[in-house]
Each structure stands twice: as C-alpha cells, then as structure tokens.
Amino acid sequence: MHSPEPPSPERAAELRRRFAEEARAERPDLSVLCLLIGAQADGTLDEAGLDAAQAELDRLAGEVPFRPGDPRSWAAALRDLLGERYGYRGSAADYQRLESSLLHSVLLRRRGLPILLSVVWLEVARRAGAPVYGVALPGHFVVGFGPREEQVLADPFDGGRVLSGADADVLVVGATGAPLEPSMLVPAAPLEVVLRVLNNIRAWASARPERSDVALWAVELALLVPSHPARLRYERGQLLVQRGAFVTGAEEMEEYAQLVEVVDEGLADRVRTEALAARALMN
Length: 283
Hints:
By secondary structure, the chain is an alpha+beta fold. About 55% of the residues lie in helices and about 5% in strands. It contains twelve helices and five strands. It has a five-stranded antiparallel beta sheet with strand order 4-3-2-1-5, with helices on both faces. A hairpin with a 2-residue loop joins strand 1 (about 130-135) and strand 2 (about 140-145).
C-alpha cells in the first residue's frame, strides 16, 4: 500500500504560505486548512482538485433537508444523508492509511479517521445552516448539534450514529479509562481541529521511519498555527537530524532549550546535550 507523494518544493512552499495566511485569519476556514494539508501530502491535488472538493461539500449540503428541526433532527438528517445514503464511515483499517487524514481523499473514498469524517459532517452541516460544532473527546472525535442544554452528539466514524450520554461515556472510558467529564463536551475551535489532524498525521508517520518526510511537513505546518505547543520545535529538530540536516536540527533544538530553560533547566540541559551530539555527527 503506497501513501501519497508530496508536491514539488515550489508548490509546497506556496501551500505553506497559504496555510499560514488562513491559520492567522480572523475566522479560519476549516475546510480550506484541511484541503491545504491534503495538498501538502498529495502532489496530485492541484487547484482544480481543491475546487472540486469544495464543490462536493456544497453539493452534499444542498441535499440536506431544509431546516429539519431541533438538534436531534439535524443529527438524524446528516446521518441519513452522509452515513446511510452515501456510506461515509470508518473502520480499523483506516488508521493504517495516510489518506484517512486527508480531506480530499476522504471525500473520494467516503472512509477516514473520526476527525476527518467529522470535518465532512461539520462542513456539510454548516453550509446547510445547522447549529453544529466538533467535539474533541479523548481518543475519539465526534460532532455536536445545538446548545449545551440541548446538545446532541453524533459519531461520523459509526455512520453518524446519534449517541446517548451513556454511549459518549463508553467512548471516553474506552480511550482513557476515566469517565466522561462535562468539560470534554465543549465545541472545538477550527485551529484545535487542525492541530489534531496534524497530530494524527505525525502519529502515522512516527510508526513509519521511512516517511520522516511526512512527519516533518506535518510538524512544520503545525508550527504555522498560532499558539502551537513549543515542543514542536524540539520535534522538528529531531526530525531534521534524523534526515541528515544535523546543523539545522541542532540549532532548532538549541532554540527550544532556550525557550524552556526558565521553567525546566534540566530539560534544557538534556536538549542541549542532544544538540551537541547532533553537531558531532558532522565530523
């Protein structure tokens, strides 16, 4: 099974510029950001392909019944359309495919990880006027409809199955061993969703050392998101060293050490030692 190959360096640089611009917009567009991630992964996704993916989301939204009613009715309408009529859902095998984290591929295959299937639900429902948002449960992403006091959850990975409170608790307990907490049910902001998508891509690549190229661009995109975790700088440095860019990787680790030494001097010392060892590899 071959994963997608990246675009040319020139195309990749342009995609990153657009990604950074969108991530810093006043209201970042989730579908645009996810499609730019897809184009960074898949060199065959050109401008026509990006437009076609947006057009498919628009088309699906046009098939949602007009204003179906309360949050439960919205959830049922999206389940009937996307899960039942079009067969969008996931399976354990989807975790082994990079395409499962790429929005354009999910639209074509109608298969993907929970978070990417949720992006499809979110973007179709939003275009149709639904009160919809993502809910980042630990270990499993779902979609919420309606205000907190009337909240209805749906699981796109399971074809849009409408969840009871007990169902949601089972998902969280299965992922963490701890019960569902009310704080887990708050809406996820678009950039939080994007960072979680990129985390999944990095996790996929970390299990495949031969695809450190994928891990590197995923880290570099995450670094373009405002308020990203500082540790991404260290991760980028490690990846650069792994790929033979010893000096650049060491410099990145040293900059990370400078950032963290105020709060954790021991960690900073360990990172500097690692950076020194990376520099020694040049000899």
